[in-house]
Design brief:
The chain is of the alpha+beta class and 458 residues long. Helix content is 32%, strand content 13%. It has 2 domains: 303 residues, Rossmann fold; 72 residues, no CATH class.
């Protein structure tokens, strides 16, 4: 047999390579498409989440990487228009204080070292009070611009129709964010400004502020019922879709998915000695309050309850304490144990929890029905936030709802960080693609930050 030459071997190898390569299927990347939607004029409406609030405040970088801003960049791939926002002047920003009795406005929380009442220094969210007299740079009007992000932090749906929402801090307005974008501050309404945009596509997350303005203050002042919510949605969505606009709307998550309501446990009054328990029991029993009783180990904090003897009782499973509670007072001064009960504004009792659950479910049923009625894409954020609690993976990284170290929520325990917002924006995109036969690529936001720091509340 004739030996195969080196030249022949190379020829066979080249042929084999070409044969294999020619049989390898090419990866087909779908061409971006708007499908049945029109993104030539886009707007966003809602509250804190759509505005880009994180770390308890609104600041420039958070706005630039907000859900609507991230969506707008993807919409540009399918004919989307310019998306203008009323950006804060810097990254210091400003937020409405969750404890207004301490001061009306605050800076964003930042991770810093803080010394507690026991003299222990550790990483903790640090923020400062901003006096009303120093708010001018952040609440100055953006006159002459066409603003497309019309989300107003902390604005309930009733506020959309109230001209007073556009008043200034100087006039006593406790929520002056709309003043920055109002077409005619003090006279115009947010609803009319939204309607005047005549958008072809809108992103909406409505009802969150009605629910969580109530929950964040321990169940005050009140919650609009489902009928009122439904009628208001009809007014807003009916106006937006009159000329054939398409849109996407999101449901409301369960409050238990936010660390703001779950980090401080109802039974975190831990007593390590019988003498501690006995001394507390000696305070209550002589006054006929024996139903307030402490043991070694975990105990429920004490709250007010008019239906209980003496008007007080211990908290039980299924009740919640908000993250705004004075933690130092709990650690060092037996706040919530020794006569000084946990104030109503820091606690959600069983009746308030029941109302929250019923109202969130009712609102979500309305949102789902309105999405079908007005031919809108529906984003199931209730289910998505539950999946965050269980744990999700992004780009190979595990994320969950654990405060700070989970990598999803920002330092206020309620708003996501920028990475979390980008993942939510992808859920919006998936819903839009599914509803309108669109092909909009999802987001890989490399500039979005995410915290993965020491969990200082272990």
């Amino acid at each position: 047999m004739k030996a195969i030459t080196t030249k022949t071997q190379l020829a066979i190898l080249a042929f084999s390579f070409l044969s294999i390569y020619s049989c390898t299927p090419e990866l087909e990347i779908p061409e971006p498409s708007a499908g049945d939607a029109n993104f030539s004029k886009i707007i966003a409406i809602g509250g804190n989440y759509m505005a880009g609030t994180q770390d308890g405040a609104l600041f420039q970088q958070g706005q630039k990487l907000s859900i609507p801003a991230l969506l707008a960049e993807q919409f540009k791939l399918v004919g989307g228009s310019t998306f203008n926002q009323a950006l804060m002047p810097d990254n210091n920003g400003i937020g409405v204080n969750s404890k207004p009795w301490e001061g009306q406005f605050v800076s964003p929380s930042r991770l810093g070292y803080k010394t507690d009442c026991k003299g222990i220094t550790s990483l903790s969210p640090v923020k400062t009070i901003i006096s009303a007299s120093n708010t001018a740079p952040y609440f100055s009007g953006i006159a002459g611009n066409s603003i497309h992000n019309l989300a107003v932090p902390n604005a309930n749906l009733a506020d959309y129709f109230n001209p007073a929402l556009g008043n200034t801090v100087a006039s006593g307005n406790t929520n002056p964010y709309y003043n920055r974008i109002a077409s005619n501050p003090g006279t115009s309404t947010l609803f009319n400004d939204i309607k005047a945009q005549n958008a072809t596509f809108f992103s909406a997350w409505l009802g969150m502020e009605d629910i969580y303005n109530y929950a964040s203050l321990g169940g005050i002042p009140s919650l609009p019922n489902a009928t009122t919510f439904s009628n208001t949605l009809d007014t807003i969505l009916g106006s937006l879709t009159t000329n054939g606009a398409k849109g996407v709307i999101a449901t409301i998550p369960n409050f238990r998915t936010f660390p703001y309501y779950t980090l401080v446990k109802w039974d975190n009054a831990v007593l390590d000695r019988q003498s501690q328990a006995d001394s507390l029991n000696d305070l209550y029993t002589p006054f006929g309050l024996g139903h307030v009783f402490f043991n070694v180990g975990r105990n429920g904090f004490v709250i007010n309850d008019a239906a209980s003897p003496g008007g007080i009782r211990q908290m039980h499973e299924g009740e919640y304490i908000t993250l705004s509670v004075p933690l130092d007072s709990m650690k060092c001064f037996r706040y919530g144990l020794m006569i000084n009960t946990v104030n109503d504004r820091y606690a959600l009792d069983s009746s308030e929890v029941y109302l929250l659950d019923q109202t969130i479910n009712a609102y979500n049923a309305v949102i789902t029905q309105k999405a079908a009625q007005y031919n809108l894409a529906l984003v199931d954020m209730y289910s998505y936030f539950n999946s965050v609690v269980s744990g999700i993976k992004w780009d190979g990284v595990d994320m969950n709802a654990v405060f700070v170290s989970g990598g999803f929520f920002s330092l206020d325990g309620y708003h996501p960080n920028q990475k979390g917002y980008s993942l939510i924006a992808n859920e919006f995109i998936k819903a839009i693609n599914n509803k309108y036969n669109a092909v909009i690529p999802t987001i890989n936001c490399t500039e979005c930050n995410g915290f993965c720091s020491h969990n200082y509340f272990q």
